[in-house]
Amino acid sequence: MFDSISALQKKEKALTDQNGVLQKFMEAEKEKNKALMNAQLREQQNGASTSSPSLSPPIVPDSMPTLNIGPCQHRGAAESESEPSPAPAQANRGNLPPWMLRTVK
Question: Where is this region: Disordered (predicted)?
């Protein structure tokens, strides 16, 4: 019985030591990755600052659709002058389900 306890304690110590070594290795890898990411970020910033002095917004590809939410509809100048647009709450009431009409005033 004592021999098996002693063997288990030795295994526990060996696993604890191995865990410590692996933790140090992981920390070293994290530091390497962090340094590499910082270097790449600085390189990108330096490349961007030399090519254009002002910051520009990210380029959105044309294939991505835009999402417009709300009652705002762009109309031609002739339509907007001849016909006044209804108030947003009134315009939405016809499109809302009955259970939501209580919340819109």
Answer: 38-105
Query: What is the tally of structural domains in the chain?
Result: 1
The pTM for the full model equals 0.38
Mention every residue, 6+ apart, whose C-beta is less than 8 A from residue 101. Answer: 93
Reading the block at residue 61, the tokens are 């590809």
State the amino acid at position 75 in one-letter form.
R
- Dihedral pair phi/psi, residue 94, rounded to 5°: -70, -25
What does the block give as tokens for 84? 């006044």
Cα gap 13→1, rounded to integer Å: 19
Query: Tokens 């044309």 sit at which residue?
Result: 62
Radius of gyration of the chain, Cα coordinates, nearest whole angstrom: 32
pLDDT digits (tens, 9 = 90+) for 59-102: 655 555 566 666 665 555 444 455 555 555 555 566 777 777 77
